[in-house]
């Protein structure tokens, strides 16, 4: 598989085309940002940790019957992935109250949400990823009703699989966001699942072991990611 030209450069990942029109190379960089790019830094080893973490998690989800974009690990920082027609919608599940939910609704951080909440957000940095609903998605043609339903089904299935996986490692899966795309007519989980896009707390101490360490200036960001990986058995 030959890497060709840069197709897209995001905040923390770069996507390259390959000699296969249906495959891309996803490169995880050490770049780290928060607050729509207002806070930016470089964190040594982060690209490597997130690449291997993502490959591990996607493998667990594939084994549970959830189709994912990831095909294989190519190097410390690169993975071969399917080329999806991405849907510009983020699916967010929250098992415990944190982040924007606390700010919007005035609930206490850490409150258990039973059942978990589900929210849609438009993936648009210029608009600060506004919350949307199924009607918006259908009206503006971002996804069909059938695709919306499948995205919701898969997002909840991810929750069932990963809540238990993290619980067994002494961790709480507080919340997370997922992105999906279409490949050969099928809804497929894309982008990434790393501590950059979810909240993970130690089950006993509730120490934050995710990107909130960067957002809140707590330090030891990559060390926290590595601790989560170690507990899960990810080979770094």
UniProtKB/TrEMBL annotation:
Q: Give EC number(s), comma-separated.
A: 6.3.2.6
Transmembrane intervals: none
Which portions of this protein are annotated as coiled-coil regions? none
GO terms, molecular function: ATP binding; phosphoribosylaminoimidazolesuccinocarboxamide synthase activity
Could you state one GO cellular component term attached to this entry? cytosol
Which Pfam families would you find in this protein's record?
SAICAR_synt
A GO biological process this protein is involved in?
cobalamin biosynthetic process
Q: Which reaction does it catalyse?
A: 5-amino-1-(5-phospho-D-ribosyl)imidazole-4-carboxylate + L-aspartate + ATP = (2S)-2-[5-amino-1-(5-phospho-beta-D-ribosyl)imidazole-4-carboxamido]succinate + ADP + phosphate + 2 H(+)
| Ranges for domain SAICAR synthetase/ADE2 N-terminal | 7-231
Read off the CDD domains from this record. SAICAR_synt_PurC
Q: Which EC class is the enzyme in?
A: ligase
Pathway per the UniProt entry: Purine metabolism; IMP biosynthesis via de novo pathway; 5-amino-1-(5-phospho-D-ribosyl)imidazole-4-carboxamide from 5-amino-1-(5-phospho-D-ribosyl)imidazole-4-carboxylate: step 1/2
Regarding protein family, the annotation reads: Belongs to the SAICAR synthetase family.
Which protein is depicted?
A: Phosphoribosylaminoimidazole-succinocarboxamide synthase
Gene encoding the protein: purC
